[in-house]
Specification:
The chain has ten helices and 17 strands. Helices cover about 30% and strands about 30% of the residues. The chain has three domains: about 60 residues, 2-Layer Sandwich (Alpha-Beta Plaits); about 80 residues, GMP Synthetase, Chain A, domain 3, CATH 3.30.300.110; about 160 residues, Rossmann fold (3-Layer(aba) Sandwich). The protein starts with a strand and ends with a strand.
Length: about 350
Amino acid sequence: MKGIKIIKKEANNLRQKLIKEKQLCTDYKVRSDDNFVYLPLITDYDVSLIENIVKDYDVGVEDYDFVKAQYRPTNFMDFLDDKISQKELEEIRKSFDIVGDIVILEIPPELEDKKTIIGKAVLDFTKRKSVFYKKSKVRGVTRTRELEYLAGEDNLETVHKEFGIRFKLNPSTVYFSPRLATERSRIVNEVKNHETIIDFFAGIGSFPISIAHVKDVKIYSVDINPEAYKYVNENIKLNRLIGEVIPIEGDIRKVINDLPLADRIIMNLPGTAKDFLDVAVNHLKSGGILNYYEFSSDYDTVLKRVEDVAYPRETEVLDIRKVKSQSPGVWHVGLSIRIL
């Protein structure tokens, strides 16, 4: 096929020019030897354009042997081109969660009959061990969802790695969101050594263990889900901690009186955390910090709710932010507020 032979020191400039003019054939590999680089041209290259280019570089167009380039998909959708229609491709949600070796996928109801094909495509693209799809929303006090096996190994227990920490879990029996990694890191940076902390809805201990991994603190990791309690105990053993994490299984309203007053309380249950605000405020030391989360379309609603419950105690907003999108116009809002 036609190509251009050019000395190595000028090859990159020419290559970039050919790419810009859409004259470089990317279906074949660029060749090189000790002194020269060989650039393949598209079959229907622009003759006049190429003549001007080769004149500038004092090179010519000749026949050379090129090796076919190996195709590397950049999106799992590339694996589906010949399996489902273009219209269906456009309907597939392109984002998914990866928890350890497991991919958790969302599939629109109208494509449920193609779920196995889609699952296999995701497995091929991600090279993970298993693919499951969300059969239900997160529900109940244990915050779990039903997951259906699609491809790979039918095993839901995995170890997720995040900022040098390992979290063992089964995402169908406990709540965990890899999308909160940045938020966990933010809270870790807020915490000072020697704080006494209570996480009201701790799950597998993702916030407590992230904090105790680098800070000398005492954290009570509370959750009503027995599976979460099981995994937080295992995760304490999996990680080297500077601070102390104390797992507690139970309803926070029933166990709170057995716990010391806190320098900080974490309330990452954005759907219903507001129902426990009175418990949190009453158990914070003067000057203690509340890390509170709520689904909301605005900041004012979240802030006013906390201030109303805290009254007559004064408050000082340290930070309020959108953690992630929950639905169109609704955000997972995070508030860090000091209650005096």
